[in-house]
Amino acid sequence: MRGRIPPALCLAVALAALLPTACARRSQDLHCGACRALVDELEWEIAQVDPRKTIQMGSFRINPDGSQSVVEVPYARSEAHLTELLERVCEKMKEYGEKVDPSTHRKSYVRVISHDGTKMDLSGVKIDGDVASSLKFACESIAEEYEDELIEFLSHEADNVKDRLCSKRTDLCDHALHIPHDEL
Questions:
Q1: Exposed, middle or buried by CB within 10 Å (0-12, 13-18, 19+), for 177?
Q2: Which of 12, 17, 49, 110 is 20 to 30 A from 119, comparing alpha carbons?
Q3: How many Å separate Cα 146 from the centre of its chain?
């Protein structure tokens, strides 16, 4: 019996080796989902602003010649508006649920309440307070850590902001190429 490793010990070691991988993937799925939901919500909020609405930017000091260096820029994508949105957008995470892909077992996060009141297919979506609070916490962490990048990407109209920000710039989503591009 000497030199033989008990099967229970082998099983415990194998499970201990797999646990960090499972936790890391769950955390990555959560942060990737939060990043993608954050960008979706910000883009939706930006789209709701009247495109004719502007804000004055620049110096309000009067130059020696009596003029001012003030320019009007569209409010929707202004730094002031984006900063304001970042302060409150993570509250919207309570309107999301968790969906598990049956083939890959990867988690994604989907809206459970539509913006326009249309009925949504919620089959296979887990809706509970733990999911919403975890997603909100991840969203707040991302909004704080990547505030400059979010403002940089969203201050100009661009394509594939979710992929560019959540995959390429932040590496929060290493599997983003396999996530469908959905519209809110």
A1: exposed
A2: 49
A3: 10
The residue type found at 139 is C
Beta-bridge mates of residue 58: 70
| Residue 169 exposed, middle or buried by CB count within 10 Å (0-12, 13-18, 19+) | middle
Residue-wise pLDDT for 117-171, tens only, equals 888 888 889 998 999 999 999 999 999 999 999 999 999 888 888 998 999 888 8
Cβ neighbours, 10 Å, residue 104:
12
Quote the pTM value.
0.76
Rounded to 5°, the CA angle 25-26-32 comes to 85
> How far is it, in rounded angstroms, from Cα 175 to Cα 28?
10
For residue 54, the 8-state DSSP code is E
Instruction: Please work out, in degrees rounded to the nearest 5, the angle formed at the alpha carbon of residue 127 by the alpha carbons of 99 and 118.
Output: 85
